[in-house]
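Thread: "does anyone have the structure for this chain?"

Original post by V.I.:
We have the sequence but no experimental structure in hand. Need at least a predicted one for the grant figures.
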Amino acid sequence: MLIAAMLTSLCIAREWENGTMEQLLSTPLRPAELLFGKLCAYFVLGMADMVIALIVALGVFDVPMRGSFVLLAISSALFLFGALCWGIFLSTVLRSQLLAYQISLLTSFLPAFLLSGFIYSLGNMPWIIQQISRIVPARYFIAILQGIFLKGTGMTILWTQFLFLLIYAGVVLALAIRKLRPKLV
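Reply from O.Q.:
Generated one for you, tokens below.
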């Protein structure tokens, strides 16, 4: 989440700061095409990072893998796509690399680290914090990872977490496209 949101939060803002956005404005690209073009390289980088983390988890730390590698790849791709879209959205809204970087850190890394159940158990948090954590996509990704790695569960049990990640990615992508649309027309 950290790498995905931070890297993509800089890409559109960098175009505005460098003055190259005008060149992109003169092309016949639609907003969605521009955003997907920006996302592609970061998506490949994120998936490569996921593969490296998986190899280290299985090979070095002997983490048991009881579930499906295909389901893990699909869930990782969905989570990564949502995080990349969040970074692109911040980049289209803020137009400043420094501000986009700082806001992406504040809105992606800290909630993902503190409110996802990765470090602290969600059941031990106050009720209001548990409710706030329901809007953090990393919470659902952590639940998917625990289900796949430790329990070997499948889509029949994890479908609600997948649905949330899919909705999150779709909403954030739509917001980013909508925010970029007036600038490209």
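V.I.: this helps a lot. Residues 54 and 63 are 9 Å apart (CA to CA).
O.Q.: and The helical segments are 2-18, 21-25, 31-59, 69-94, 97-114, 127-132, 137-151, 155-184.
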